[in-house]
Amino acid sequence: MTHDRPSLQPNVEEGGHLLEMTGISKSFPGVRALNDLNLSLKGGEVLALLGENGAGKSTLIKVLGGVYRAQTGHINIHGQRLAINSPSDAQHAGIAIIYQEFNLIPALSVRENIFLGRENHRAGFVKHADEHRRALALFQRIGISIDPEKRCNELSVAQQQVVEIAKALSVDARIIVMDEPSATLTSQEVKRLFAVIRDLKRHGIGVIYISHRLEEIFEIADRVMVMRDGQHVASRAVGDIDHNQLIEMMVGRQIENEFPKTAAPMGDVRLKVMNLHRGQDVRNVSFNIRRGEVLGLAGLVGAGRTEICRLIFGADRPDAGTIQLDGKKLHIRSPRDAIEKGICLLTEDRKAHGLILNHSVRENFALPNLARFAPLGLVNHRRERNALARYVDHLRIKIPHYNEIVKNLSGGNQQKVVLAKWLERNCDVIIFDEPTRGIDVGAKYELYLLINHLAQQGKAILMVSSELPEILGMSDRILVMHQGRITGEITDVRNATQEQIMQLAVA
């Protein structure tokens, strides 16, 4: 059995009706996720599917991908009604889905993940060299270099995302769904991704693009479809709508200032990092954060930003350097030490490091707060539930009940659970590593207001973000990193530009 490189010649004429989902409804216990919803996609079109966390976007694409079965409705592809009851059915129908949460087997190589279930073999033997060549060609097309024989658990988050894109491109798909594909990519990698998408469009392939980065929508999408509470709100051509109108459609209310930064009174230095060093990842880094200050940390993926966060939090051990809190030297050997000293970290990868996925929302929320909820060794469930209820309401966490398993939540609601547990801990230093990754525009706004509130309380805040407008919009001061070193500091943030940050990031 052999596999040639998949042809991109479509079975529909460009502009034709490629996909129609009609009257789709799906319910879970206590939740109506989709309510009589319609979606259409033309050949050669990029449809941006938008909505707040919990709007039903992920459920809809899982129905299309055969993960869920809808209770009502039909799916037509090029005018033919199809029964898609499994992911295999979806693949045979020419549908490829890149999910927001990666679907890779960590112990297998990049090549093995790309061709899993579709191995190129003869007489029972896999033709590794041919698969290697085809994988290299896929990466060359995307414009990113990755060793096909490297194991996926050795890749960065951004590299894993690229493997997912290559896996989708390796299938002869007529419909490709991308759920937050750019969330972990650098600006250059996003440009390469958009070049790939435009190439797919030229071949008549339809793309459903889900993203909370609205600036991307206006650059790559032809049409937007907005969902709210499992229902279709509106569909518009991108040229017929502006940024503010799109936000209002998504959240159902006006948001006058996307980055509502307010100045907090600055106090003494709260966190001081001196000559922090670990291999080539972090090289002699020194900085401080004052009470009430939001310090933005910018740089390209791999610059060392996350590594600094992990060192401060005790997740990794430094080769050298010291950390002080309120003038006292800290001896942090583990995250437990950091938490006890009043330092918390919202990790970039919430699945791997921020949550216990098979445990409930209530259990994840309570874990770092057990001393408060169980002072005598027995958990006071009433106190625990009352505390959680405040954050469910304040952060608008969409859950059917407190004992819902965390892995069943949307990515944005998972992030809110992580945020809730640390807010209840009431730490003095809060490290946000990509805090708005996978969070909708309404929830972002609420998070920014919360950051303002924390700064007003005198917290020291370190915010790592790849979103340059976010860094510029919410920081009091910005540090920029490149190859493990701090290459620049921006103090006049109000008059700074994205270009200024990028120059320092590639220095």
What can you tell me about this protein's structure?
The structure is a single chain. With about 500 residues, the protein is of the alpha/beta class. Among the domains are: about 15-95 and about 210-250, P-loop containing nucleotide triphosphate hydrolases (Rossmann fold, 3-Layer(aba) Sandwich), CATH 3.40.50; about 265-340 and about 425-505, 3-Layer(aba) Sandwich (Rossmann fold); about 360-425, no CATH class. It is built from 18 helices and 22 strands. It has helices at about 55-65, 85-90, 110-115, 130-140, 155-170, 185-200, 215-220, 245-250, 305-315, 335-340, 350-355, 360-365, 370-375, 380-395, 410-425, 440-455, 470-475, 500-505, and strands at about 15-30, 30-40, 45-50, 70-75, 80, 95-100, 120, 125, 175-180, 205-210, 225-230, 230-235, 270-280, 280-290, 295-300, 320-325, 330, 345, 430-435, 460-465, 475-480, 485-490. Strands 6-9-10-3-11-12 form a 6-stranded mixed β-sheet, with helices on both faces. A 6-stranded mixed β-sheet has the order 18-19-20-15-21-22, sandwiched between helices. A 4-stranded antiparallel β-sheet has the order 2-1-4-5, with helices on one face. Helix 4 crosses helix 5 and helix 14 (about 380-395) packs across helix 15. The longest helix is centred in the middle third of the chain and has 16 residues, at about 185-200. The chain is globular, with a radius of gyration of 23 Å. It starts with 16 loop residues before the first strand and ends with a helix. Residues about 1-15 have low confidence and may be disordered.
Strand order of the largest sheet: 6-9-10-3-11-12
Summarize the main sheet: 6 strands, mixed
Shape: globular
As a percent range, the share of strand residues is 25-35%
**Number of beta strands:** 22
Task: Give the N-terminus to C-terminus distance in angstroms.
Answer: 49 Å
Low-confidence stretches: 1-15
Average pLDDT, to the nearest integer? 88
Question: Can you name the CATH architecture of the domain at 264-342 and 427-507?
Answer: 3-Layer(aba) Sandwich
- CATH homologous superfamily grouping of the domain at 264-342 and 427-507: P-loop containing nucleotide triphosphate hydrolases
Structural class: alpha/beta
User: Helical element count?
Assistant: 18
CATH topology of the domain at 264-342 and 427-507: Rossmann fold
What level of helicity do the residues show?
25-40%
What is the C-level CATH assignment of the domain at 264-342 and 427-507?
A: Alpha Beta
- Our Rg estimate from Cα atoms comes to 23 Å
